[in-house]
Structures are given as structure tokens and as C-alpha cells.
Design a protein that fits this description.
This protein is mainly α. Helices cover 76% and strands 2% of the residues. The chain has a two-stranded parallel ribbon with strand order 1-2.
């Protein structure tokens, strides 16, 4: 069985294997056999990049031209232009599939851009006043339909990005009724579930794994914003989610390293929020400062333990916490030139330490 990984990741694994061989844990033959199981995935396809960039520019150009002349067109003409543009560009892509597959994909990307832009322009034309989330979800549906007929990883990334944009649009829900929000949230949840499922079974790339992992906490935060959950409870749940990612890194096949990375990032930033007294004072008005300090001490101990276990990414959050208290304590008292010099020195020191860990082959999160 071959594991397709990046060149950088294979080099990191090779460093660890050499260290194990040096310590007598494995033999030279075992090291070679294990390294043969890792295969560097194909590099960047220049033709594809050029086609995608071209598709984006053409799509934006078409939308800009239409938008600039929109006010001079009748509603029916506007709808005709959008429908014709989507159909003509998509069918052109199908025709080019045989001889020019990369260009054909670019044409399909353009049709998706016209489709998405057309949703918003049609809403404006007929004064439908639909929520932004509505158009994003319809756009995502169009991408999924195309994705099932064309197994393209870029389409999955686009689909995941649109779902995240939907979640962000649902943060602004003051004009939306509870029942409407529930409907949108249910559809968005189904989309995230589908995104994770596609990542697990069909498109197990590092980027799709990362987006899948980030969609879940964003979905939860979107719900918390609607029901106005206290910052303390939200931060604790995000912290727990990050820990779960770290403890169960194999739930997305082939993405254990990335799951651990994202888990540490989610837990680290959630923990950082919990170092502030304001986070606790919403629930514990009189004990906020004490609880924040106590949590900070516990967090630093945990991060130091993770560094000892080889999770060098934890060093970044140690530096973040130290700098946070450094700013709070000394910003108003120290001369500003000295303040920034010392702060920069702290960061440089942590950078040197991270580099030392990397050279020892202990960097688990690269």
C-alpha cells in the first residue's frame, strides 16, 4: 500500500526514520521498506494553474461587464443573458473534453462563476430580497451536481469554500426568523456532512481535509452566535473539539498529520481566548481573573508536555500566551522602542527553538 504525501512530509518522516535507525529501534532494511511505502504526490500542474487563473479572470470579466451595463437591460434580457451564458460556456466545455481537457475544465469553472453571479444579479433584478445564505446554498448545489459528473478536486475546494461563506453569512441573522435560520442551518449541516464524506472517500487531499476540519467548528460557532451562547461555553466546546481532533487523528483516512495540526490550532486558539478574564466573567463575574490565571497555568503545562512529546507547533501557542501577558503588563510602562525590541527577541528565541526541534526530527506538525 502506498501513502501519497508531500515532498516536505516525506523528508520529515525520513529524518525520524534515520533517528530510529541510529538508536537501534529499526534496521536499515526496515527503514528502507517503510520509506518505500511513502510516495511523493504529483507536483503542481502548470497547465491547470494557467487554465484556472484564466477561468477566474474571464469569469470576473464577464460578470463585471454585465454588472456595468445591467441597468440598461430589461429584466427578461438579463435573465436570458445569464441563462445563455451558463449553457453556452458549459456546453463548450463538454465539446472540448476530448482534445483539450484542461481548457474544458476551465470553461466549466467559468459557467459556475456565471451561475453564482447570476443568482445575486437575478435577486437584484426581481427584488426578491433573499438572504445571502440562500444564494450561496443554491450555488453550492450547482457545484455538487457538476462534481458528481466531473470528479475534480478543485470543485470540491470551491464547494467547501462556498459552505464556509454560507456559515459566515448566517452570523448576520438579526432579520431572520428562528424557523428560517433552522432551515438554512439544517441545509448547511447536510452540506458539511457531504463535504466531509467526499473528503473521506473520494478526495483525500491535504487541502480538502483542512477545509473539512475547519467547517465543523465554524458551523458550531454559527449556531452559538444565533442562540447567544456565552463565550465561556463556546470556547470550552471549541477546546474540546480541538482535543478530539488530536486524540482521534485517523478519522479522516490519510490525513492524520493534518487532523492533528488543525486540532492543535483549534484547541490552541480556543485556549488562548480562555486566558482572558472577560471570557469567564460572563458566567463567573467575581472569579473571572482567578479562573483565567488558573486556566493559563494549566494550558502552559499542557503545551510544555506536548512540546516534550514532539508537538513542536505547541511552542507557537506558548509564545502567544507569553506575548499576551507581556503586552498587558509592560505596554504602558516600558519605552516603546525597548518594548518592541524585547517582544521581537522573545519571538526570535522561540523561532530558534522551533528550528532546533525541526533539525532533531521532532517536528510532528510539518
Amino acid at each position: 500500500m502506498k501513502f501519497h504525501v508531500t515532498k516536505h512530509y516525506k523528508e520529515a518522516i525520513a529524518g525520524q526514520m534515520r533517528q530510529f535507525e541510529k538508536e537501534g529501534i529499526i534496521s536499515n532494511e526496515q527503514r528502507s521498506q517503510m520509506m518505500d511505502a511513502y510516495e511523493v504526490r504529483a507536483g503542481i500542474n502548470l497547465t491547470r494553474i494557467v487554465s484556472v487563473v484564466g477561468a477566474v479572470l474571464v469569469g470576473l470579466g464577464i460578470l463585471t461587464y454585465i454588472a456595468g451595463n445591467w441597468s440598461y437591460l430589461s429584466p427578461n434580457m438579463r435573465l436570458f443573458i445569464i441563462t445563455f451564458g451558463i449553457t453556452a460556456v458549459y456546453l463548450t466545455g463538454l465539446k472540448l473534453d476530448v482534445g483539450y481537457p484542461k481548457t474544458a475544465k476551465a470553461m466549466r469553472y467559468i459557467s459556475l462563476f456565471i451561475f453564482g453571479g447570476g443568482l445575486f444579479l437575478t435577486d437584484q433584478t426581481y427584488h426578491l430580497n433573499r438572504p445571502v445564505a440562500f444564494h450561496f446554498l443554491i450555488w453550492a448545489t450547482g457545484i455538487i451536481i457538476m462534481l458528481y459528473s466531473d470528479k475534480d478536486d478543485l470543485l470540491l475546494y470551491f464547494f467547501q469554500a462556498i459552505l464556509m461563506a454560507t456559515a459566515f453569512s448566517l452570523f448576520d441573522t438579526y432579520r431572520m426568523t428562528d424557523s428560517a435560520f433552522a432551515a438554512y442551518f439544517a441545509v448547511l449541516t447536510a452540506g458539511v456532512f457531504l463535504s466531509v464524506r467526499l473528503t473521506r472517500h473520494h478526495f483525500n487531499s491535504g487541502f480538502s481535509v483542512t477545509l473539512s476540519l475547519l467547517q465543523i467548528p465554524l458551523l458550531v460557532l454559527c449556531l452559538f452566535a444565533k442562540i447567544e451562547v456565552e463565550a465561556l461555553y463556546g470556547s470550552l466546546l471549541m477546546l474540546a473539539l480541538g482535543v478530539i481532533y488530536m486524540l482521534k487523528p485517523d478519522w479522516l483516512k490519510g490525513g492524520a498529520v493534518i487532523v492533528t495540526q488543525v486540532g492543535l490550532a483549534v484547541a490552541g486558539f480556543s485556549g488562548f481566548v480562555l486566558t482572558f478574564a472577560d471570557t469567564f466573567e460572563g458566567v463567573f463575574p467575581k472569579a473571572g481573573e482567578s479562573l483565567a490565571i488558573g486556566f493559563t497555568i494549566l494550558m502552559l503545562i499542557t503545551l510544555l508536555y506536548l512540546v516534550k512529546k514532539g508537538y513542536a507547533g505547541a511552542v507557537a501557542f506558548i509564545a502567544l500566551v507569553i506575548l499576551r501577558y507581556y503586552f498587558d503588563t509592560f505596554y504602558d510602562f516600558m519605552p516603546k522602542s525597548m518594548f518592541f525590541m524585547v517582544g521581537g527577541g522573545i519571538l526570535i528565541g522561540f523561532g530558534i527553538y522551533l528550528e532546533a526541534l525541526r533539525r532533531k526530527g521532532l517536528q510532528r506538525l510539518e
